[in-house]
Design a protein that fits this description.
Distance between the termini: 48 Å
Mean pLDDT: 93
CATH superfamily: Nucleoside Triphosphate Pyrophosphohydrolase
Number of domains: 1
CATH architecture: Alpha-Beta Complex
Structural class: alpha+beta
Order of helices and strands: EEEEHEEEH
Number of helices: 2
CATH class: Alpha Beta
Low-confidence stretches: none
CATH topology: Nucleoside Triphosphate Pyrophosphohydrolase
Largest sheet: 7 strands, mixed
């Protein structure tokens, strides 16, 4: 029996690292996962490429201007139920490594972000993280070791 295609909503997240050891995270300002740390990101607009969407979301959410060509594909998060809101979302996660904190001097929280946090990747704990973004932290930790 033929099953209809799934209604899947593409999202993007940006893992912005600094000198490969720190990561820029936002503290969510609203549910779900209010006050948890997450990667900046959001939905892909109709007709938009994923890297283009990630660059746009980084600008809108944390005022970080990057070229989409500087973003590197890191992983795909696609577990059903990964977002407690209705619908099935999958996230294409990109990374960009900035040389030092000077590159984020103009960053500020906007849209869904309450605060910006720069943390050592090794200092984060799963209970601090929202969505399934802990999986990204684990992947980045493996790259460090």
């Amino acid at each position: 029996m033929h099953q209809p295609y799934a209604h899947v909503f593409p999202t993007v997240d940006g893992a912005v690292t600094i000198a490969g050891r720190e990561i820029l995270l936002i503290e969510r300002a609203k549910p779900p996962f209010e006050q948890c740390l997450v990667l900046p990101g959001g939905h892909v607009d109709e007709g938009e490429r994923c890297a283009q969407a990630c660059a746009r979301e980084l600008l809108e959410e944390i005022n970080l201007e990057v070229k989409e060509t500087d973003l590197k594909l890191l992983t795909l998060l696609d577990e059903t139920g990964r977002d407690p809101r209705s619908g099935h979302t999958l996230s294409i996660v990109f990374t960009i490594d900035l040389p030092d904190r000077n590159a984020i001097a103009l960053c500020k929280p906007a849209t869904d972000a309450k605060h910006l946090h720069v943390r050592q990747i090794d200092s984060l704990a799963p209970e601090e993280m929202g969505f399934d973004h802990w999986q990204v932290i684990e992947r980045l930790r493996k790259k460090l070791s």
